[in-house]
Design brief:
Blueprint: H1 3-13, E1 18-21, H2 26-33, E2 37-40, H3 44-57, E3 64-68, H4 72-76, H5 78-86, E4 91-97, H6 111-114, E5 121-124, H7 131-143, E6 150-155, H8 156-159, H9 181-193, E7 197-201, H10 204-208, H11 211-221, E8 225-227, E9 242-245, H12 252-259, E10 263-267, E11 286-290, E12 304-307, H13 310-325, H14 333-355, H15 364-372, E13 380-383, H16 388-393, E14 405-406, H17 416-427, E15 432-438, H18 442-445, H19 449-454, E16 460-465, H20 477-483, H21 492-498, E17 502-506, H22 512-524, E18 529-534
Helix pairs in contact: 1-2, 3-5, 3-17, 9-13, 11-13, 12-14
The structure holds thiamine diphosphate (TPP) and magnesium ion (MG).
Thiamine diphosphate binds at residues 386-389, 412-414, 438-441, 464, 466, 468-472.
Length: 545
């Protein structure tokens, strides 16, 4: 067998159903021959974002794979891999390489060298007989430990050469590690002793599918729960103990409970310092449970720590906590729930004028509020984009089911949301998959709306067009006044229609809901839809200094 066919065969054995890619890479042709659906994008970055969503939405049960050509293909893919690295998403990246006689000669781009900093594992294969072992290493790395991209660079000429007979391949296992029982006992004691603990869930809970255990722990401790943006939807935000998610903008109840906490328990999170995560208050002791020991004491010192898969950590903690409580709830839940409800209603009352505004241009908050109350939230997967849309939606969207909000932001590439929604739709075709973005964001990856049309991936794209990079207005005052440097323009409803999708421009407040309903109906017929809402250049966010 030729090396390209061996790679395709291995992908199939690893359960890969779609190969997302951009030519030229002989693996694409070999995958099609092996009946793996090939999906061709308009630029590499979106394809990587789609592969990223395949892994995210399946908790890493299925791994997103992307293949591209050597040189320009690999050079142009950097953003997509870097985003997956920043947000710790396990994907397999298969760049072609220059033919071996030219492989490491400048100025030829070396994926092996250039991707070192944004992958957890990168390999360059130069012998056909080494292909199966390289793929085994890549899949073992991507399935285990800290989720992050892995890369195997396969030179163009090598992919056309024969792999000697006799090669074998066994799919890589997914192995979990558990915490030290002595530390589990210490953590359980500290959690039970705390008067005002707050649980903070990261995406480790999603990858471990440890949602029931998280909920059980919260209910046992009668403690409020928040999440990182990446962990959003790990806990139902309609639950009486939910504080909503962390992010740049947050709810009043989250701000209040975090500030007044006497202990914060982070589970499946990195506690990385970021502008797009809620900051932990100074001086409050932290217990840090995470898969990756490299995160312990990294940005924040931990009073106690547990290293292990979030599911195994919670499985170990639950009986220890239960023992210490001796089966007797302490009767805190009602008071905590009441206080959350009180703060939440004050907060929503404060935002109500924005959320239900009749103004024109539209309030972006009104669009989000109407969207939230028109879709079937439990059967919708939504993602934000970089810019104001992220900070406008994340505190107000209340997911009720796991992995129905794809949150991100350790790095924040404009245009990421489109590929995420498309990748989500590939693996969850029964769900309404939505990306919410601004008019700067669509400038980066908008052309791949054509991919959604051509490849029959009927997503709903919600665009807030304020003809501006509004989030930059405050920091680009002179450039805006003198040179209109934050202005942008475009008619994106026309653009969507020109690419073969459904497109509507909405300017009236009472037209928002009917347009959403028509667009959802179009997605059900198999047509991707783009709703372009003409919005004001809002600069208000639910931010607590
Ligand atoms: C690739 C990339 N370049 C630059 C940025 C910095 N950036 C963040 S948001 C933004 C402008 C966002 O404008 P838009 O999408 O229209 O949203 P708005 O704030 O206007 O609602 C910029 C330039 C980024 N996140 N990603
Ligand atoms: Mg804008």
């Amino acid at each position: 067998m030729k090396a390209a066919a061996v790679v395709a065969d291995i992908l199939k054995r690893e359960g890969v159903q779609f190969l997302i890619g951009y030519p030229v890479n002989p693996i694409i042709e070999a995958a099609a021959e092996a009946d793996i659906r090939t999906i061709i994008v308009r630029q590499e970055r979106t394809g990587l974002h789609m592969a990223d969503a395949v892994s995210r939405v399946t908790s890493g049960e299925r791994i997103g794979v992307f293949a591209m050509q050597h040189g320009p293909g690999s050079e142009n893919s950097f953003g997509g891999v870097a985003q997956a690295f920043g947000d710790s998403v396990p994907i397999v990246v298969l760049p072609g390489g220059y033919p071996r006689r030219l492989l490491n000669i400048p100025p030829n781009f070396s994926s092996f060298l250039n991707y070192q900093h944004v992958t957890k594992w990168a390999e360059q294969v130069i012998l056909t007989e080494a292909v199966p072992a390289a793929m085994r290493r890549a899949f073992t790395q991507v399935r285990n430990g800290r989720p992050r991209p892995v890369l195997v660079e396969l030179p163009y000429d090598l992919l056309h050469d024969e792999v000697p007979d006799g090669w074998t391949y066994t799919p890589a296992p997914r192995l979990r590690t558990g915490p030290d029982p002595r530390d589990v006992a210490r953590v359980a004691a500290a959690l039970v002793a705390a008067e005002r603990p707050v649980l903070y869930a990261g995406q480790g809970v999603h990858y471990a599918r440890a949602w029931p255990q998280l909920r059980e722990l919260a209910e046992l401790l009668e403690a409020p729960v928040t999440t990182s943006l990446q962990g959003k939807s790990a806990f139902p935000e309609t639950h009486p103990l939910s504080l909503g998610s962390g992010g740049r903008s947050i709810s009043k109840q989250l701000h209040h409970f975090l500030t007044n906490a006497d202990l914060i328990f982070g589970i499946g999170c990195s506690f990385t310092t970021t502008s797009y995560g809620v900051a932990m208050p100074n001086g409050v002791p932290i217990i840090h449970a995470t898969l990756d020991p490299a995160d312990i004491n990294k940005d924040l010192p931990a009073e106690l720590a547990l290293v292990g898969d979030a599911g195994l950590v919670l499985d170990a903690l639950l009986p220890e906590v239960r023992d210490r409580l001796r089966g007797r709830p302490r009767g805190r839940a009602e008071a905590v729930g009441r206080q959350i409800a009180q703060l939440k209603s004050e907060w929503l009352a404060q935002w109500k004028p924005r959320l239900t505004s009749e103004a024109k241009p539209l309030s972006p908050y009104r669009v989000i509020w109407d969207l939230l109350h028109t879709v079937d939230v439990a059967n919708t997967i939504i993602t934000h984009d970089a810019g104001s849309p992220r900070d406008q939606i994340s505190p107000f969207w209340e997911p009720v089911a796991p992995l129905t909000y794809l949150g991100w932001g350790k790095t924040t590439q404009l245009g990421y949301g489109l590929g995420l929604a498309m990748g989500a739709k590939l693996v969850r075709p029964e769900m309404l998959c939505v990306n919410l973005w601004g008019d700067a964001a669509i400038g980066f990856t908008g052309m791949d709306f054509e991919t959604a049309v051509r490849e029959r991936i009927p997503i709903l794209s919600v665009l807030l067009n304020n003809f501006s990079m509004a989030i930059e207005l405050k920091i680009m005052k002179v450039a805006t006044e003198k040179y209109r440097s934050t202005d942008i323009s475009g008619n994106y409803a026309d653009f969507a229609r020109a690419l073969g999708g459904w497109g509507e421009r909405v300017t009236e407040p009472n037209a928002i809901v009917p347009a959403i309903k028509r667009a959802i109906a179009k997605t059900r017929e198999g047509t991707p839809a783009l709703l372009e809402f003409i919005t004001e250049q809002a600069e208000d966010f639910s931010i607590f200094p």
